[in-house]
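Weekly structure sync, notes
Attendees: PL (lead), two postdocs, one rotation student
Agenda item 3: pending single-chain targets
PL asked that the sequence for the first pending target be pasted directly into the notes so everyone works from the same version. It is reproduced below exactly as submitted, 172 residues in total.
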Amino acid sequence: MNLVSRLLVAEVRESSLIPFGGWKGNYRLMPLPELYDDGNHFAAHLHEPYLVPEEALQPHNRVACMSQVGVNLLLQRWVHHNSRVVVPTYDYQLVTVAQFEEADLIEEWCDERAENSAEFATETAAAHQWLRGDSTNAGKRWQNLLEDAQTRATVRTAMRRHLKELRIAAQA
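Predicted structure, written out during the meeting:
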């Protein structure tokens, strides 16, 4: 699912280890210690961003995927680098949790439905279509229900039920 044609990226280069306590003051860098699990350390250079076409960032070229904490730290460092404002990482968590939940659901859908990597795009689109469909909660899409912590489990349960129905239908 391509949301934009170009994406903002920062160059990642080998770097000396910046211990967590030393991150303060190095806001131009996003430390990526042991990125390749080979003992070498890297950092994203936030002061050297550029745009790349989305085709340049394919899953088979990916070497790492950030955790929610990692993304929150990246957002914190990016905003601080550009504005000198320090926003606590938990504030980023509050406003991005629905998107992380959606990504987790899409991954679960693809794990269940895609038999090989060639089917990921098709199944990702199918998951998006289901998430953007009407929920059992009048006037709300499943995707909108992810914004409320009280209804996230309902979305996950409904998606698993839907996947089970698809599995049974495929066996018939």
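Discussion points:
- The radius of gyration is 19 Å.
- The longest helix spans residues 89-113.
Action: rotation student to compare against the earlier draft before next sync.
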